[in-house]
Amino acid sequence: MSFIWSLVIFSGLVALVLLGVEGAKLEGLFGIWLPYAAVGIFVGGLIARVVNWGRSPVPFRIPTTCGQQKSLPFIRHARLDNPATGLGAAARVALEVLTFRSLFRNTKAQLTQDRRLVYGSEKYLWAGALAFHWAFLVILVRHYRFFAEPVPVVIGWIQGLDGFFEVGLPVIYATDVVILAALGYLLGRRLADARLRYFSMAADYFPLFLLLGVAGSGVLLRYVWKTDITRVKELAVGLASFRPVLPEGLGAMFYVHLFLVCALLAYFPFSKLTHMAGVFLSPTRNLANSNRARRHINPWNPPIVGHTYAEWEEEFRDKIKAAGIPLDRE
Amino acid sequence: MYDGGKILAGIAIFLGLVLLPVWHNAVVASAPRPEVKTPTHEKHCVDSAAVMRASHMNVLDQWRDAVVREGVRTTVTPTGMTVSMSLTKTCMNCHANKKEFCDACHNYLAVSPTCWECHVEPKGSSS
Ligand code: HEM
Q: What is the pLDDT, as a whole number, of residue A19?
């Protein structure tokens, strides 16, 4: 059901932009106003979420990560898994973000024939996720050629590497193949396994559809229903420099691509995709284990009102004296 | 413990990266789209101008495959001309100035076709 609903909503979005551009001729809305609105929601929404997270205090370091903490000199310290310094923690976050280290430890539970529960290593999810994210990043960086003239030289190098195999004309980019294959796997994975299907929700399928839609329409735009890219660049540069112009004849396929990108951006801060910002704030990754080396004070502890012996003696002085017990201060 | 400083630094980096095109265009204004000069002694290209702008590489691809793989060397274009399917002899005969025509567009989008490593680039200067 959740699969069908996400598909229906996704198809509705595509139908909306096709009707809007082909039928109602609302190119100005889809080419200028929606992109601005979507970027605004994306940036504002993500900042709001991060500020909200930043407002919750973190009283203590969470030491329950794999790896030996820094201890006596003859016990080997796991510097990356259980760092004792901020620099070490930064390295741990960087490795997590760039190589998905915790996903690498993913396991799969299975019942053997004699009904024993065994756990095995499961690396496909890690490989698929890593392939998708890196391809996505390279594609985003390559798109920078639409936003600046002259185009920075690095972009040219990346394009050259990406089109290294020089198959077809326009040259087929390796990342285009990788991103579609990886997204296909990530979607198929949820559909093929009954257990995964059971706990996959619309919020899991919908982002996958959006991403497949964006990548798929981009690929169609490059290899099949082509558009005049010099005019796309005119539009993109106009948007980025706040002097929007609306070139003629960009074609429906381009507007489908752009609108799906806008939908993705606007949906981002409200969805699980926010993990892009959240991963940097994972307490088990970004906090150095300095619990024993430094004193951490819980910010919401009430101020401790002490009552010393001297004060107590002062309070009950008469009674103590009357009982004949000796006093510290006569 | 609150990490206000680090959160703000993170947000600053995020804004710097996500809005990079905006900062870039604010510092160095991008050059406008190049208007290429098309031949005046001919009325039509090998297809309509709109198709050529978007899909000229597909035309070249078809031509190349027809010549190199099938040995067919001439074709009748959708605009009704009978031409020899050749990059140098046909395209560059009408669009003789590669620098001001092909390259003007391609530099604008950092496209660098490898064709000229083997194919001869005309020395002419008329557009
Ligand atoms: C989330 C952001 C985006 C993603 C993931 C994405 C993805 C893609 C992909 C996979 C392609 C296929 C060709 C290639 O890899 O270069 C493509 C092409 C294209 N995209 Fe995007 N895109 C995004 C944003 C945009 C935006 C904002 C624009 C508007 C300026 C745009 C305009 C285009 C155009 C014009 C093409 C055709 C490129 C060509 O023919 O070489 N894309 N896109």
A: 93
